[in-house]
Design brief:
By secondary structure, the protein is mainly alpha-helical. It has helices at about 40-50, 60-65, 85-115, 145-155, 185-190, 205-215; strands at about 15-20, 35-40, 135-140, 190-195. The protein is globular, with a radius of gyration of 21 Å. The two termini are about 40 Å apart.
């Protein structure tokens, strides 16, 4: 998973435990599922049973005759990554360094193109060489221009999204005591647009995407 470091430290190795997603829009796309990594044996021992209902042995172990029964030591989840998705992930892993470098190159082109737009911002544009290139985000001058840009992109057949809504505004967090202290966060979510970014994106396409933003 390690493809780029800042000051010699990879994002996935900061702290005692890290999680990766393999959803279809991620840098390693296995369709669904994910992975937890840790360099602490005690955390690994606690996490492993959680992936399969808190059971001490997996169905595969019992099928192969390696275990005849099992215990449930904690409430767990059905988080097993099946063999098909794991095979897809292993194939994607071989391409990760190349694809991430391609994403960084595309971010560099976006940076040049967005720089020619008055009032638009590309967050962390100065640090693209350290980025995994997962998302390409621009911030419109104001919410009205963002809405116009989203509409214009849609009319041009260009998909856009927004990463991410203000978490405190989700129903699940309606009781948060800090909901009224997030004006900057809400300003960002009302102005941000996620533009297309994937390893096979044609570089010439970037200028046409940014030209749509220029029209609004």
């Amino acid at each position: 998973m390690r493809t780029r470091s800042m000051n010699g430290v990879m994002a996935g190795s900061i702290g005692d435990i890290s999680a990766f997603s393999f959803f279809s829009n991620k840098n390693i796309a296995a369709g669904e599922g994910g992975m937890v990594v840790t360099n602490r044996a005690d955390l690994a021992e606690r996490v492993r049973p959680l992936r399969s209902h808190g059971m001490t042995t997996l169905t595969w172990d019992r099928h192969k005759g390696h275990a005849g029964s099992y215990d449930v030591v904690n409430p767990g989840y059905n988080y097993r990554l099946d063999e098909l998705h794991a095979a897809l992930g292993r194939a994607q892993l071989k391409k990760l360094d190349r694809n991430n470098q391609r994403r960084r190159d595309l971010l560099g082109l976006y940076r040049e193109a967005v720089g020619s737009l008055g009032g638009w911002i590309m967050p962390f544009a100065e640090a693209t060489e350290y980025s995994s290139g997962h998302l390409m985000v621009v911030v419109a001058p104001n919410p009205n221009i963002r809405e116009s840009a989203v509409h214009a992109l849609r009319q041009s057949g260009i998909q856009s999204s927004m990463h991410y809504p203000c978490v405190a505004d989700f129903t699940a967090f309606a009781g948060s005591s800090h909901r009224d202290d997030l004006e900057v966060t809400r300003q960002f979510t009302r102005r941000a647009i996620t533009l297309p970014l994937y390893p096979t994106l044609n570089p010439d396409r970037i200028n046409s995407i940014v030209d749509v933003l220029r029209t609004v």
